[in-house]
């Protein structure tokens, strides 16, 4: 079984390295557009519950919000990173 699907991006908890799930290119483009990148090659982002709620209200992809909210669990924030 292949470890990645062409066009899919893997999300990880940046603090623990635990896999969060896969997202598509459009979902990644949304994350990149919404988040502040410290460098052009930046692949890690800080999220919190308020940010997820704001994205939900803006009409962000429900599957992306659900994936991130599930990964956040009962914590107030989450550091994620992505990889192809």
Molecular structure report:
The chain is an alpha+beta fold and 84 residues long. Helices cover 36% and strands 29% of the residues. The chain is built from three helices and four strands, in the order ββαβααβ. It has helices at 25-34, 49-57, 62-72; strands at residues 8-13, 19-24, 44-48, 77-83. A four-stranded antiparallel sheet has the order 2-1-4-3. β1 and β2 (19-24) form a beta hairpin. α2 packs antiparallel against α3. The longest helix is centred in the C-terminal third of the chain and has 11 residues, at 62-72. It starts with 7 loop residues before the first strand and ends with a strand. The model is unreliable at 1-5 (pLDDT under 50).
The major beta sheet can be summarized as: 4 strands, antiparallel
C-alpha Rg (nearest Å): 12 Å
Overall shape: it is globular
Please list the strands of the largest sheet in the order they lie side by side.
2-1-4-3
Structural class: alpha+beta
Share of helical residues: 25-40%
Amount of beta strand? 25-35%
Order of helices and strands: EEHEHHE
Quickly list its features.
four-stranded antiparallel sheet, alpha+beta, globular, 36% helix, single chain, 4 strands, disordered N terminus, 84 residues
């Amino acid at each position: 079984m292949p470890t990645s699907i062409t066009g899919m991006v893997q999300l990880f908890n940046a603090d623990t390295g635990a896999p969060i799930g896969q997202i598509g290119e459009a979902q990644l483009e949304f994350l990149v557009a919404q988040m502040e990148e410290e460098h052009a090659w930046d692949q890690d982002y800080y999220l919190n519950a308020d940010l997820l709620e704001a994205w939900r209200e803006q009409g962000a992809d429900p599957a992306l919000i659900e994936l991130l909210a599930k990964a956040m669990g009962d914590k107030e924030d989450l550091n994620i990173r992505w990889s192809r």
